[in-house]
Every structure is written in C-alpha cells, then in structure tokens.
Design goal:
By secondary structure, this protein is of the alpha/beta class. The protein is about 35% helix and about 20% strand. A 7-stranded mixed sheet has the order 10-16-15-14-11-12-13.
C-alpha cells in the first residue's frame, strides 16, 4: 500500500538555488493513492511512503492533476528503489501538486522573449462530413501529407478556411486512413465506447502498462557511474532516441538526477515550440541515419551506453539493423525502455501518433455527443505521464541490474497510459487552486536567452533534481560521449 502523511502547518521558506519552497497540509488523497498504486504495480516498482503537498491547479473533466502527481510519484518511488539497491538512504518521496501541474505544461518560461508557437497553423480539429478529425501537422512532412490528401495548396498563414472546406467533404474514417497512408498523422474523434469496441482499443486494453522482459547478464557497473545521494545517476550514460514529447520528458528527469544524456536527432528535425522545455540538462547531437557513417556512429554510441530510451515507431530501429537482439548484443546488460503511440499489438501497432491524436482516438477528447467540438485535456498529459513512467521503468531497470545483474527491456505506450487515466476518471477530485498564481521559479540561462525554471515537483530523501546544462537548440553538440 502507498502511505500518505501530512507535513504540518502551511509555511513558506527560502529554498536552495533561489527557489521559493512551500509546504502545505495534505488533504485526503484517495484518488492519488489509487492512481499511484495502479501505476507502480504496472511498472513493477515497490510501494513506499509518499508525501504530497500543495494544491492542484489544472481544471479538467479527468483527474489530470492527480494523474500528474501520481506519475511523478511513481518515478520517485522507482528512484527510492534504486537508492536502496545501491545501499543509499532513500527517504520519503515528496511531490508538490501545483509544481507537478506546471511541469506538465511548461517548466522553462522565457524571460523577456517569445518562443516559437507550439502548434503549426494547420494543426487543429476539423468537422468532417460525419464527425470530427484532428490533423497533426507540426512536422513539415506530416503537413505536406495532409494537405496533399486534401488537395489544398500549402497554407502560409493561420487561415484554415481552405482546409476546413476540404475536410468537410470527407467522411472522417476515410480521411484518417488516407492521411495515415500518405505518411501523415491524423485521428478521428471516437467515443470511449467506440474505442473499447475498436480492434486497436481491444488490443491496448489487453496489454500491460509496461511489458518488461529480462535482458542478458550485465557486466560490472562502469567505474564512471559514481552514484551519490545527491546525484544518483552521476556518470551514467543515457542514449536518448526520442522526440516530442514523452521521451524527452523522461530523459530530462534522468538528466536532473545526474545522468549524462546524449540526445540524437536527424539533420533536419526541429521542435521549435518545445525545445526550450525538453532539452534541459542534455547534450544534443545530430546524425544522418540514412548513411552508413551515421549508423556506425549510432552503433558505437549504443555499445557504450548504459540506458537507451527510444520513442520511434515500433519497427524503426529494426529497419536500421538495431533490433532488440542486436541492441543486447552490442551492450550486454542494457536497460532498454521504449514507447510508442498506439500500443505494441493490434492493427495500429506501427501507426504514427501523438498525444493529441491518442486523446481523439481513445475518447478522452469526447465531449459527450458527436456534434460538439472535441474537448481535450488542458495539457499534453498522456505525453508527460508516459515520460515519467518511462523514467520509472529506467530507474526500476537499473535497480534490478544492480541487484540481480541483468539488463531489461520495457515497452509502454500513450494509448495504454490513456487507458489508466480513463480507468480512474470517476474518482473524486480534490480542490483546485488558481492556475494563474505564479509558481516558484529560479533564473536560468538558455541558448535563446534568459528564462525561469519552475521549482522541481519531486524530491526523494536528500536527492534533489538539478540540471548541469541549460536548455539549448537541437544539434548543439558532437555525437560523442
């Protein structure tokens, strides 16, 4: 069982590194307790004590704030497990609700300058002939695929009238299939009941939250890994093969625990609206994996990694000659964690997808009837929660490797995370604070200018999250450890 306890009367004090830290009484947290128990069981993390403080600030039909707190707490309990395996004091896991909510939005806030827009002008929900559909067009090739199917010339402004008119002539299922077949990303709005009957919904419901397999026996832990209570992952190498948004959230947390995170991107990839938020603490390189030299470098990096986190489509690494067996051969004892959008079985197992699309497909964005506009979550909660669960799977895998001397491979998905949120949708919500109230922050420097970092939502005993590098543009570093 997960135990909760209050931390005493409300008070405010000046914390380290300039953060304003808050300690508030804990309300009855039955929903959080239930969600934490579900998530830890799904990852295989042992239960433990969790202190929850602060007041949630995310309004939603779903218990998004409780889900944010619970997913971060799951990563914290996995860290406590690792500290125990290393023979170090873990202490209680502490999560602040308001900070968790802010980290599920944006943790890094520009100071005096504006970042690029998060969404492409065409990315939106559209009314088709028989329902609603979402086009995800942030990537140029996804945008080109959608506009090509619709027969619409490229749109250079926020005027979507031509796209709206073209979508209105399609049936939603047919347009979804055509855009996906063309290499794009789209999802029609389905009700929860329709998703439960859909072949992919049935497949996802039968999958575990995290499918975990034992890997090969591991050699001795590398001497460069110098774990300490303050920086438990100091010197540990994490190869980050992820893109928006779940994977980068996972590796950002690992970097905050001291890991040497090296993120690899293609030469032409960018995430302009979120790079400031998800590159915190990492080294950032580019490789052209369409070339033999790029593949050779990636293989060398993988052979010297301790952990790999990847969020490509399910067969992407296989097509590069780096299937699961080859990854284990290159690095015995590897902790291998991956996620996809729609799960690992069923007809959509290889379908490209994103948080906003999975919300449409699974019925989370269902407003109650077919005529009303979709009603998505206030943040990309599936991405963020899956990211913290990815990180929990990494930490749990490391604990098992330290204890048992074996590597592991874990598989998660946004759709399976969505199923967890839907499973607790009827549980009672706690009181909400004012989302406009500024969270505690500290100034940091980024590759674009000054910014403020929201105080981290998680601590475990004496372990505090801290990042050695500020956020920077993708491709800022060489592809080397």
């Amino acid at each position: 069982m997960v135990s909760f306890r209050a931390v005493g009367p409300a008070r405010v004090r000046q914390g380290s590194k300039g953060f304003r830290t808050y300690a508030l009484p804990v309300r009855t947290a039955a929903t959080e307790r239930t969600v934490i128990e579900r998530l830890t069981a799904g990852i295989g993390v042992p239960p433990g004590e969790v202190e929850v403080t602060g007041t949630a600030v995310l309004p939603s039909r779903y218990p998004v704030s409780e889900f944010a707190t619970a997913s971060i707490a799951t990563a914290g309990l996995a860290l406590a497990e690792l500290l125990d395996a290393l023979g170090m004091p873990g202490g209680p896991v502490r999560v602040d609700r308001a900070r968790a909510d802010h980290w599920f939005a944006f943790a890094v806030r520009p100071d005096g300058w504006e970042p690029p827009a998060v969404w492409d002008p065409i990315a939106s929900d559209y009314r088709a002939r028989d329902g609603w559909i979402r086009l995800h067009t942030n990537a140029p090739h996804h945008r080109a695929a959608a506009l090509g199917v619709l027969g619409v010339a490229d749109v250079t402004s926020a005027d979507r009238s031509a796209v709206e008119a073209a979508v209105a002539g399609w049936e939603a299922d047919a347009l979804e299939a055509a855009v996906v077949e063309a290499g794009g990303a789209a999802a029609r709005l389905r009700s929860p009941a329709a998703w439960a009957r859909h072949p992919q919904g049935v497949a996802v419901a039968a999958e575990p939250l995290a499918a975990i397999e034992d890997g090969d026996p591991a050699p001795a832990e590398p001497a460069r890994w110098r774990p300490g209570v303050e920086r438990p992952l100091q010197g540990l190498r994490v190869l980050d093969l992820t893109r928006v948004l779940a994977g980068p959230v996972a590796t950002r947390l690992l970097a905050g625990l001291g890991a040497d995170v090296l993120r690899i991107d293609p030469p032409d990839w960018s995430e302009p609206g979120v790079e400031i938020d998800v590159t915190l603490g990492k080294r950032l390189a580019r490789l052209d994996l369409r070339t033999g030299a790029g593949i050779a470098t990636l293989r060398d990096l993988l052979a010297d990694a301790d952990v790999v986190v990847h969020g490509y489509r399910g067969d992407a690494l296989d097509r590069l000659g780096l299937d699961a067996a080859e990854r284990r051969r290159l690095r015995p004892g590897l902790v291998d964690v991956r996620h996809d959008a729609y799960g690992w079985t069923g007809p959509w197992a290889l379908r490209r997808g994103f948080d906003s699309l999975v919300q449409m497909s699974s019925g989370i964005a269902w407003p109650g009837d077919e005529e009303a506009r979709p009603s998505p979550l206030p943040v990309q909660a599936l991405d963020h929660a899956t990211g913290y669960l990815d990180a929990a799977a990494v930490l749990h895998g490391l604990a098992r490797r330290v204890r048992d001397g074996v590597g592991s491979a874990s598989r998660l998905s946004l759709a399976r995370t969505a199923a967890e949120l839907q499973a607790v949708s009827d549980l009672e919500r706690g009181p909400l604070g004012d989302p406009r109230e500024a969270p505690p922050t500290a100034p940091i420097e980024t590759g674009w200018g000054p910014a403020d970092l929201v105080a981290p939502p998680l601590s475990v005993g004496a372990t505090r999250l801290a990042w050695d590098r500020g956020s920077r543009p993708l491709g800022s570093d060489p592809a080397a450890w």
